[in-house]
Amino acid sequence: MEFWRSAENGPLLEVTDLSKAFAGIVASDRISFDIGAGELHAVIGPNGAGKTTLVNQIAGQTLSDSSSIQFAGRDITRLPTHRRSRLGLARSFQITELFLDFNTADNVALAVQAQAGHSFRFWHKARLEPQLRKPAVDALERVGLVDRADVPASQLSHGEHRLLEIAIALGGRPRMLILDEPMAGLGPEVSMRMIALLSELKGEFTILLIEHDMDAVFTLADRITVLLSGRVVATDVPTSIRANAEVQEAYLGGESQ
Questions:
Q1: What is the spatial distance between Cα 38 and Cα 6, in angstroms, rounded to a whole number?
Q2: What range defines the domain where residue 132 resides?
Q3: Which of 9, 42, 121, 184 could form a disulfide linkage to 209, CB 3.0–4.6 angstroms apart?
Q4: Do 48 and 15 touch, CB atoms closer than 8 A?
Q5: Quick one: DSSP state of residue 207?
Q6: How many domains does the chain have?
Q7: In what order do the strands lie in the sheet with 25-35?
Q8: C-alpha 80, offset from chain centre
Q9: What are φ and ψ of residue 67, in 5° steps?
């Protein structure tokens, strides 16, 4: 039995009746699902399905109108983003958010420093401290960017930016990674590199993956939740999702992929 299915420990993340409306338009319609420790759980759906609103609510960028969000047995429904991060929730964004004037290692070291709760006031002196630098370099090594540690982030390619975002998330020593379309805009070679990296991280970290690349989703996911118009159409293992008639009609083109 996969350890993310263990009934003894319960799910690491449990979302119940997650709801959100903007100016009367429902973006999240009583969404419920759970993610077990060590599971890679993908969320898919067409544009406008509510995926970004969902992850914004889980990460704390958007507060829900009504719901319960439990993380590691704790109610985080009303906690601000920085407190969720301190509990071990780390998120990458659909649109890369980096300090482009800083070098690659400094971008990760800032995440290490933030997780430790230190001030940024003395950053220029603190940036070379071993307790910041070593975890940053270790994270860069995990994603294959250690040889780019001293290169300004502005000089990295788009694919390297996506890998750096994951290194930043890892630098915060997370229990769970929320990855928002890490494959977006990647060419075939870098896409394969990203899939290999996520495969390595799978099991070591619990991962919530938002992704349009169906090859990546069906290769990596333990379970998949399908969203349509803000509601859950199905949550199941990949083989069952492929065979689900409603999913095929709504999202996979009306036929088995």
A1: 10
A2: 100-174
A3: 42
A4: no
A5: E
A6: 2
A7: 25-35, 13-22, 66-71, 74-75
A8: 17
A9: 165, 175
Question: Dihedral (C-alpha) 89, 94, 99, 102: value to the nearest 10 degrees?
Answer: 90
Token pair in block for residue 199? 């495969």
| 3-class DSSP assignment, residue 27 | strand
Tens-digit pLDDT profile for residues 16-47: 999 999 988 889 999 999 999 999 999 999 88
Residue that is last in its domain, among 130, 157, 174? 174
Q: What residues have CB less than 8 Å from 123, skipping those under 6 apart? A: 110, 113
Of 174, 207, 233, which residue is a domain's last?
174
The reported pTM is 0.88
The conformation of residue 151, written as its DSSP 8-state character, comes to S
Residue 191, SS3? helix
Cβ atoms < 10 Å from Cβ of 23: 4
* Average confidence (pLDDT) over 118-122: 52
For residues 166 and 186, membership in a common domain is answered with no
Counts for the chain of helices (H) and strands (E), in that order: 10, 10
In a domain, 160, yes or no: yes
Question: What tokens does 115 get?
Answer: 């997780």
HSE-CB at 171 with a 13 A cutoff on CA atoms is 29
